[in-house]
Design a protein that fits this description.
This protein is an alpha+beta fold. The strands form three sheets. The protein has a five-stranded antiparallel sheet with strand order 2-1-5-4-3. It has a five-stranded mixed sheet with strand order 7-9-10-12-11. α1 runs antiparallel to α3. The longest helix is centred in the N-terminal third of the chain and has 50 residues.
Length: 454
């Protein structure tokens, strides 16, 4: 028979509960410290005031005692109890409210003639009094040196009786701590309410529906900025997932045609023995090469996005001249400025220039101009052909993967539509840009990269 261990309540995981418990503990501690200090201060103030008055009354009565004559006591409204007691504890004279029993048994000495005490006889209320010793000179004159004592006192105030003061201050401290705790609970709940709404909405978002957005409170505080950042992240995520789905669909479509042709040729060779196998394989090779080309470009595209490239100083002018010299077909005229240097991957930058030149030659009528120059803090590579150009509505679309315009399909039927997309991805990876700008005639491709300084 197994014995289950005792289960303890875990510390609350809620921020609201933790903050409230912390504030409650601090509130109790602060209230206790304030309460103790306030209690001691009140007691000290009240007792100091009472003893100051009782000492004054006792001192004034002793001062009125003359040779052979003791005047009657002069109690006041604040000090109604006044007595003169001899050394044997007998009351010599007393005020009307002091009674015939000594108020205290305290006997001050010659060195310390005044003592402030609180007497609490059994079954009677406490009395706060000052015990004063009559000076020895007056004692010789009045009683031949016998010590006499004056007691001047008053009933202890109700606030100081028992623990009433501590109870009242403690109750006030408890109420104050409870008020702090309740206020903290409400304020924390109000602060965390938008966060709970964001959490609930985030739990509703899944891969099938990324269009939902978290509620965004007004203002410019941390929670509002958090909601805005979450919505911006969701927007980027939705765009990325949408592009990924579109990319997957386009890839599937582009690979479907050559794969279907390859399979058809192979199945035909298997079904019909009279067909020469070598001829069937030869007819299938273009489809396989087409698939290999698409896959190689896709791998390059993915590698560029996921793997950082090595960088080195590259002279764009020299690179442009070298790539222009390698081209064949339509004439390419290069114009470069000296010392146009950037930091990047030489092979990838060369592939951009090569792709742009080949694309320009494909659409040019008779001439392609390429230039590399400085423009402020940027390096510009401009490739301009004298062909029909690109319409404004297509200038961004041609950089999308697998996008091919009608003219491109006619001039290059075997193209994959990934060349320009790969060029732009390389430019972005080098913190630059690639776009098509206005020109009087033909297409004007402009590559911008940050210049290497220092």
């Amino acid at each position: 028979m197994s014995i289950r261990p005792a289960t303890f309540l875990p510390f609350p995981h809620s921020i609201q509960a933790r903050v409230t418990l912390t504030v409650a503990a601090v509130s109790v501690l602060v209230a206790a410290v304030i309460g103790v200090g306030l209690c001691l201060l009140i007691r000290h103030r009240v007792e100091a005031e009472i003893y100051r008055e009782t000492r004054r009354v006792a001192t004034e009565w002793i001062g009125l005692m003359e040779r052979g004559q003791v005047p009657p006591p002069a109690p006041t409204a604040r000090v109604p109890l006044v007595q003169l007691v001899d050394s044997r504890g007998r009351v010599v004279t007393a005020g009307p409210m002091a009674g015939d029993r000594p108020l205290s048994t305290v006997r001050p000495t010659e060195e310390n003639r005044f003592l402030d005490v609180t007497e609490c006889p059994e079954s009677e209320r406490c009395v706060m009094l000052t015990a004063a010793r009559v000076p020895s000179l007056q004692s010789w004159e009045l009683w031949r040196g016998e010590p006499h004592f004056v007691y001047a006192g008053t009933d202890q105030p109700p606030a100081l009786r028992g623990r009433r003061l501590e109870f009242l201050i403690g109750a006030g401290g408890v109420l104050l701590a409870a008020l702090w705790t309740w206020t903290t609970w409400r304020a924390t709940g109000r602060i965390l309410r938008p966060i709970n709404a964001i959490r609930q909405r985030m739990s509703e978002i899944n891969a099938n529906d990324l269009s939902l957005r978290v509620p965004q409170p007004s203002g410019r505080d941390e929670i509002a900025r958090l909601a805005r950042a979450a919505n911006q992240t969701l927007s980027r995520l939705e765009s990325a997932v949408t592009r990924q789905r579109e990319f997957a669909a386009v890839v599937s479509h582009e690979l479907k045609s050559p794969l279907t042709g390859l399979r058809t040729g192979l199945e035909e060779a298997l079904l019909y023995p009279e067909i020469d196998a070598r001829q069937a394989i030869a007819r299938s090779l273009p489809a396989a090469e087409r698939m290999q080309q698409i896959i190689d470009e896709l791998l390059a595209f993915a590698r560029l996005r996921n793997t950082p490239c090595s960088s080195e100083p590259v002279d764009l002018g020299a690179l442009v001249r070298a790539e222009a010299a390698r081209t064949t077909g339509v004439q390419v005229r290069a114009r470069t400025e000296p010392d146009v240097r950037v930091l990047g991957n030489r092979v990838q930058l060369a592939s951009i220039v090569t792709n742009l030149l080949v694309n320009a030659q494909r659409h040019a009528s008779g001439l392609v101009d390429v230039s590399a120059e400085r423009a402020g803090a940027q390096a510009l590579v401009v490739v301009l052909d004298d062909g029909d150009g690109v319409g404004k509505e297509d200038r961004e679309r041609i950089f999308e993967p697998f996008t091919r315009l009608e003219a491109g399909r006619r001039l290059d039927p075997d193209g994959s539509g990934l060349g320009l997309a790969l060029c732009r991805a390389i430019a972005v990876a080098h913190e630059g840009s690639l776009c098509v700008e206005d020109s009087p005639r033909g297409a004007r491709f402009v590559l911008r990269l940050p210049l290497l300084t220092g």
